[in-house]
């Protein structure tokens, strides 16, 4: 009888440990990706006084293996959830982990959703929304092109 009690206690302990581990893993995966951006003109743009938008760099809260990146005009997206994206990359398998990327950049392991598509230029003064996903974790960020 004593052996059965020890086996039962061990089984209960194993189930408790598995439950705690499952909760911890799923809680970590359910958080949202935090995104920020910066826009700085290059020295070449400042010297030549060229008009246009400065390169946009997006930063993430940690390194993620992204499965989707999409940029849409916010006003268009608010009226039509299926708005045509200006830039849309997807990953079929294993993308490189990134913590930052530039608008229009090619990211290893990701490809355009439509073969041969390029990032369309951003209009200054227009608000855009960036959607990103890394598996079942996602995030979004609104930004203006300057």
Q: H/E series, N to C?
A: HEHEEHEEEEE
Structural class: alpha+beta
The proportion of strand residues reads: 25-35%
> Order of strands in the sheet with the most strands?
6-4-3-7-8
What do the pLDDT scores average to?
A: 84
Q: What is the number of domains? A: 2
Proportion of helical residues:
25-40%
Task: Tell me the Rg in angstroms.
Answer: 22 Å
Q: What's the end-to-end separation, in Å?
A: 76 Å
What does this structure look like?
With 146 residues, the chain is of the alpha+beta class. The protein folds into 2 domains: 1-30; 35-144. It has 3 helices and 8 strands, in the order αβαββαβββββ. It has helices spanning 2-29, 43-48, 74-79, and strands spanning 35-39, 56-64, 68-73, 87-90, 98-102, 111-112, 127-134, 137-144. The strands form 2 sheets. A 5-stranded antiparallel beta sheet has the order 6-4-3-7-8. The chain is elongated. The N and C termini lie far apart (76 Å). The mean pLDDT is 84.
Topology:
Elements: H1 2-29, E1 35-39, H2 43-48, E2 56-64, E3 68-73, H3 74-79, E4 87-90, E5 98-102, E6 111-112, E7 127-134, E8 137-144
Based on the model shown, name its key terms:
146 residues; alpha+beta; 2 domains; 5-stranded antiparallel beta sheet; 3 helices; 8 strands; 27% helix; elongated
Concise overview:
The chain is α+β, with helices and mostly antiparallel strands. The protein folds into two domains: 1-30; 35-144.
